[in-house]
Each structure stands twice: as C-alpha cells, then as structure tokens.
Amino acid sequence: MGHSIVIHDDPDEIAVTIDGEPVPVSGTAGGYWSPLQAYQQFASLDDLARAVAATLRKPAG
Amino acid sequence: VAALRKRINQADMSSDERDRYVNAVLQMKKTGYYDWYVRTHIDSMWMTTANPGTMNMWAHHRPAFLPWHRQLMLDFENDLRTADTQLTGKPSDLTLPYWDWINYRSKKKFLWWGRIWGDNFMGPNGSGADGKVTDGKFQAGPGWVLSYDPGPGYMPFTQATVTYLTRQFGQDPNVDSLPTQEQWDAARNLTVYDSAPWDRWVGVQPAPVPNPVKFAHIDSFRNVFEGWVPYYDSATALPVNTNLHNRVHVWVGGAMGPMSSPNDPVFFLHHCNVDRLWAQWWSDDPSRPYLPKDGEPNATDPNNDPDTTIDLQGHHLNDPMPPWDGRNDPLKGPMPVIRPSDVLNHLALGYGYWPDDKVSLSAVGVP
Questions:
Q1: ipTM
Q2: What angle do CA B127, B274, B158 make, to 5 degrees?
C-alpha cells in the first residue's frame, strides 16, 4: 500500500504530513542555519528522513 | 566614580529622555555610524582574525557571543553620546536603556507596552504582508532607509532589497510569545559558562528529551542563554524551541530576524537586556570562570556547524575579538584590542544596571 508524503517548505520551515497527518520534525543533528533566519535552526534532510521512517514503521491503527 | 553610567529600564525613561535617545539614533543614521553596527554585526559571521583564512569569527554560536556583544553595546553607547553632543552642543550623559522582555512582555500591561512601541520611541508593529512599519520615528521613508541585509546565501554586504523597517510581532507560529521568568531562572541556575564543542549544539539532544528538564545539568550557560537549547518544562512536556535571546529576535520578526538585525533600533534595547541578564548571572558568582581558557584546543563537532572543526581563535579568554583587534577600520580608524577578559566585569567598564546594581552603585557613591 502506498503513502502520501507532503513536504511543505515555505517559508524556510519544513512541515511534513504523511497520509494527511502532521509529523513532527525537529533539528537534532546537522540541522541548517541561515543568515536570513539567523536566530532559528531548521531540520536537515537527515532529520526529515528519520521522522518519515519512524512514522512509516509504526503499526497501523 | 561619578562617571559611572546608569543604564535604566526603558519603561522608566522620561519623555524627554526618549526624545533625546531617538534623536541621537537618527543622528547616527545620518552620519553613517549607525550602519557601521549593522555591517559589523553581519560581518561578525565572516570576519577573520589576525591570521586570515583560518576562521570565521562567529560572534554567535560560540563562547564570545556575550563579551562580543557587550563591547558592541559599549561602542554604540559611546557613539550615541557623540551624536547627542552634536545635536545639543553639550557633553552627553545618554545611556542605553534596556527592554526587560520578561517582565514587560504582555499587551495587558499596556502602560509599559505602549512606551516601548510608541510612535515617539521605537515605533509600532508592522502591517501588511511583509510587516512594513508605517508609523513612528523609524517608519518607511527617507529618515530610516536600511542599507544592508545579509544577502542571499552567505554573501555579506549585499545591498538591501527591502529598504524599510519591518516587524511582525509573534507571527512565527513557533514563537508567539516572549521568554518567561521560569526559562530565565532555569538558565541563571547553570554554573558553567560554556563547554565543548563550544557551538550551538552544546546541550542539545535528539527530541523527545524528557531529561534534562528546565535546562538542568547543561554545561553551557552561553548556549542556553543564546537560545539554541530546547526547554522542557517537565518530563512529559513538549519542548519550547528558540529560547531567551533568540526568541526575542524571532518574536519581533521582520528586520530583527536575519543577521542584519541591528537595522531595527530595538536591537540595542534587546541586547542591552541580554547584557544586563549576563551581568546578573555573573554577579551571582563572579568566581565562575569565562571559558574557554587560553590554550584550549579546537573541538570537533559531528553536527558540522558548518565545519567539523570548531576553531576557538577569537574566543579564548585572552584572544582579541575582531573587529577589536587593532585593525584600522575605514570609519572608526585604529580599533582597540578587546579580549573577553577585558569585559567580564561590567562595573569595571564604567556602567551599571538600575536597579539590579543598586547596592554596587550605592557603594561607589552613585545615588
């Protein structure tokens, strides 16, 4: 069975939903920093991949 | 002794004091001195030391965050006095006021709220899609034109594409409130100034992190206070990210968000309060050492921030902090050599915070 994974990257912040449900993604390692948003840190693609993988591994229901 | 400068809460300023402060800031803008602070703040992320090419200065994410900004505030206060004298023809006793964003954080406290964001002081919140400030002394117009922004990517000194002040109070969905007393108390309880790897990852652990809560056991007052460490109110609470110093920048939003944040004059009131809170922490126990000590080796951080090696040049106790490293500045001329060790005791620098330092100031004859 397939899944719907939506990554919203505007403005400068990753918001992820899997099958319509929001998935928390936090910058735990290697998150990026930008001089345009200098006082925040953002999740990296590694963080995103970990969050998605953890969600998909959970049993349904 | 009589020359000791008394920095007060902006809420306690008289109307005349607010007018003089704003007029001096506008005068600095005219003479080009104001924009020196914007440019220097941007430059702090790329500035090299006496050994060019060996490091970025990183006046943020690193131990020198607090001493570097203390010197920036002191220089600004001195230039503010020069500007005031240019306007009045008299010696100036202007001092930087601080914005106590913990205790004057609520719109319900309208009296205090109205003073800082009044048209005759810092001006109001912005409006419209980009938060354009259209009222007050720093409103969009010829009197307050932004000269610098951090530019695309890592290119410094790109001419600003938005040349007017912007603010978007609490608009970031993750930062809709200012820091709390509880969060500051938790930071103030920490006893170690900083520790390896000396960057913005000290004390940060993968979420969810039920322990430590309330910043407990984190060996970096600097990183917690700068705002990079998630705050957990309890073992089961969701973390509050973007804290203390960082949180205020993000909460104001707009021009306060990027590395060109001194474009918003409230930057200096915010950082005056940051300096005041550091002074509180230091006063709790002046025997706590600034770290890293001289000779501390560079650290390795697997988080790549952006380099694996965290270069501590410019951060050791007795390293000169660029641009205060004897260089010849195009606007200011020869710069003095200032090290973290030179600025650890704010009272020795000739200023105190009122009423925090009331006892200390009274002891040296200041009423």
A1: 0.88
A2: 55
How buried is residue B284: exposed, middle or buried, by Cβ count under 10 Å (0-12/13-18/19+)? exposed
- Give residue B206's pLDDT: 62
Q: Which residue of B has its CA nearest to A26?
A: B207
The separation between the first and the last C-alpha atoms of chain B, rounded to the nearest angstrom, is 11
What's the helix, strand, coil split of chain B in %, to 5?
35, 10, 60
Residues contacting B270, CB < 8 A, separation 6+: B99, B101, B245, B248, B249, B252, B256
**DSSP designation for B96:** -
Q: pLDDT averaged over chain A?
A: 71
| Chain B residues with a Cβ under 8 Å from any Cβ in chain A | 42, 45, 60-61, 150-151, 154, 172, 200, 204-207, 227-228, 230, 239, 241-242, 245-247, 249-250, 257-259, 261, 302-306
Q: Compute the distance between CA of residue B315 and CA of residue B182 in angstroms, rounded to an integer.
A: 29
Pick A30's closest partner by Cβ from B151, B247, B304. B304
Shortest CA distance to B104 belongs to which of B30, B28, B13, B193? B13
Exposed/middle/buried for A11, CB within 10 Å: 0-12, 13-18, 19+?
A: exposed
3-state secondary structure of B5: strand
CB B98 within 8 A of CB B10: yes
- Considering only the C-alpha atoms of chain A, give the largest distance between any 2 of them, rounded to a whole number of Å: 42
pLDDT digits (tens, 9 = 90+) for B194-230: 999 999 889 887 655 556 678 888 999 999 999 998 8
Residues B90-149 have pLDDT tens digits of: 999 999 999 999 976 555 555 556 689 999 999 999 999 999 999 999 999 999 999 888
Residue among B204, B242, B302 minimizing CB distance to A39: B242
pLDDT reading at A12 higher than 60: no
3-state SS, residue B294 = coil
User: How far away is chain A from the Cα of B225, in angstroms, using its nearest Cα?
Assistant: 12
Q: What CA–CA distance (Å, rounded) separates B84 from B82?
A: 5
User: What percent of chain B shows pLDDT beyond 90?
Assistant: 65
At B198, the amino acid letter reads: W
Tokens of B202: 């000290």
What's residue A24's pLDDT? 65
